Amino acid sequence: LGGIGVPVFSNFSGGLHHLFGQNGGFIIGFLFLSVCCSLSSKLKTDFKKLCLGFLGVLLMSICGVLYFCFFTATKVFNFINLIFVFMFIKDIILCISAFYISKNIKKRTS
């Protein structure tokens, strides 16, 4: 939807230029994350669900980092040292939080 102009991206904006800009890799990588999260709902053990969530975060981050470095001519190692580590840690914490929140919601609604 954001690609066709619906304002769903940052600063209430939309358009193809967001997908092909320096942060477009994270938006595209989010598709991998959503597929992993969807598949994890079919798994039985909590450990496997969390691992698939972590894999999704990793795929999203790799896609975003490579895309960003390509568009800004930044060396991958420099980007990883400066920004990526903090974003990745935050995303892992959010993944764990979302897992436990969804687990509580499922428990209360069933």
Tell me what you see in this structure:
The chain has 110 residues and is mostly helical. 75% of the residues lie in helices and 0% in strands. Helix 3 (46-72) packs antiparallel against helix 4. The longest helix has 34 residues, at 76-109. The termini are far apart.
Question: What's this model, at a glance?
Answer:
This protein is mainly α and 110 residues long. The chain is built from four helices and no strands.
**Low-confidence runs of at least 5 consecutive residues:** none
Instruction: Tell me the series of helices and strands, N- to C-terminal.
Output: HHHH
**Overall 3D form:** globular
Determine the N-to-C terminus distance: 32 Å
Using the CA coordinates, give the radius of gyration. Answer: 16 Å
Helix count, per DSSP?
4
What share of the residues does DSSP label as strand, in percent?
Answer: under 5%
> What is the share of helical residues?
over 70%
Give a short account of the largest sheet.
none
Overall mean confidence score, pLDDT: 83
Q: Pairing-aware structural class of the strands and helices?
A: mainly alpha
How many E-type strands?
0
Relevant terms:
single chain; 110 residues; mainly alpha; 4 helices; 75% helix
What does the secondary structure layout of this molecule look like, with pairings?
Blueprint: H1 16-19, H2 24-40, H3 46-72, H4 76-109
